[in-house]
Design a protein that fits this description.
Length: 123
């Protein structure tokens, strides 16, 4: 039933410009509810580290907070954010386009948070 409704009702509405009011990316209250559910799951599962995305709100916890990481939304106009794990370290990064003084374009990596050693977040 839901597949039928999405195909026949929702898709034409999206084409007309209606956005999904239940989407965490579009609805702040829904985004908070989703994040609280994820945090609750982490706490109920012995503070299991979790990496998520698509809420459009990046998160990189302090060492004293629950281990809940979020890249936010991996694709933005002219940039991509992500979580990198390398050499036992975790980092929130952004790859974006810059224009050099000579007019050439370049892709640049910027560290938004971290790097932090993974042992801070794993029990």
């Amino acid at each position: 039933m839901s597949s039928f409704l999405v195909k026949t009702l929702w898709k034409p509405l999206q084409i007309l410009g209606f956005s999904d009011p239940t989407s965490p990316a579009q609805n702040f209250k829904e985004r908070i509810k989703v994040e609280h559910k994820l945090e609750k799951w982490i706490m109920e599962n012995n503070n299991q580290m979790m990496i998520t995305g698509h809420t459009h709100r990046p998160r990189f916890p302090d060492k004293s907070e629950i281990p809940f990481f979020n890249d936010g939304s991996c694709v933005h106009p002219r940039s991509i954010t992500g979580i990198e794990i390398e050499n036992n370290e975790i980092t929130l990064i952004k790859w974006h386009i810059i224009t050099n003084n000579n007019g050439t374009m370049q892709i640049k990596r910027t560290i938004l948070e971290g790097p932090e050693n993974l042992t801070h977040y794993i029990n």
